[in-house]
Structure formats: C-alpha cells, structure tokens
Design brief:
The protein is α+β, with helices and mostly antiparallel strands and 153 residues long. Helices cover 31% and strands 30% of the residues. The protein is built from 5 helices and 7 strands. The protein has a 7-stranded mixed sheet. The chain is globular. The termini are far apart.
Length: 153
C-alpha cells in the first residue's frame, strides 16, 4: 500500500468512496465540485493502482486543522488503512506547525483509538460558525467532535 497526495485523476474514486458511506448515513456527502476544489488537501491510500482510502486535512485557523472525508473502501477495512491516513495527516499538521487537529465524525471510537479525545463541539467556534452553519444538518448534527493536541498551548 502506498500513501500519497491525491491527484486530479483520483477524485472520481474518492467521490465514490465518500458517496458509498454518505448513502448509508455514515458520513456527510461531498459534491464533486468541492472535492476537485480541495484536491490539494487530499491524501489517498493506493494499492495496485486502485484508490482504497482517502481523506483530507483542512486548515481552519492558525492553530487548528480538521481531518475531513476519511473513508476506506469497505473491502479493505480493518487493515490499518484509516489509521495510516490519520497518521499522515498528523505528520502534515506537525510540519505546518499546527498544534491541534480535530474531526467531526460518526466514528468517534476510531479516532479515540488514534489518540484523539472527545470534546464538546462548542469548543470549536471557528468550525461551527465558518462552515457548520451552512450544513443542511445544522443545528441538529449528530457528529461528535474529537481533538488531538500535537503541541501543548
């Protein structure tokens, strides 16, 4: 398996992965246009030329980034692919000098196993008022917030 930054040619596969889970209500759907616009934020897991996992690291503020759209092909779950992607995002955040990374997720147990801690969403006002307010599920979002401190403030 190879973990690498996404290319434009990967984005249809990324869209299929996200749509698979979004159709089941396990993650938020993402329009193709948003994925193409955010291609530079995405990292993919590839095996034998096939995209088997993907996600993105989105910078929210000078001290905060979010892991978004993390998805692993259902044929490849429970093989550590999601954990490898999370570790690559945390490494990227450290390189950028970002002290904190969070996720809003329906899969909080996975992130907790990766070292994240649950927090109230209200502790993320930049996210809530910058982006969540435009979500069709706002204010009745069922996602849980988790965060990891990379550098103690």
């Amino acid at each position: 398996m190879n973990i690498r930054k996404a290319r434009i040619t990967d984005m249809e596969s990324v869209h299929r992965l996200i749509s698979y889970y979004a159709d089941q209500g396990l993650m938020l759907a993402r329009p193709r246009s948003a994925l193409y616009e955010a291609v530079r934020e995405f990292t993919v897991a590839e095996e034998k030329g096939e995209i088997i996992g993907a996600g993105s690291l989105h910078i929210i503020w000078e001290d905060l980034a979010e892991i978004r759209a993390l998805a692993v092909d259902p044929r490849y779950t429970r093989r550590g692919i999601g954990r490898c992607l999370v570790q690559s995002f945390l490494e990227e955040a450290r390189e950028l000098g970002l002290p904190r990374v969070f996720a809003l997720t329906y899969q909080s147990v996975f992130f907790i196993k990766c070292g994240f801690e649950p927090i109230p969403k209200e502790k993320l006002p930049q996210k809530v008022w910058k982006e969540c307010i435009n979500c069709p599920k706002f204010p009745n979002c069922e996602e849980e917030a988790v965060i990891i401190e990379l550098v103690k403030l």
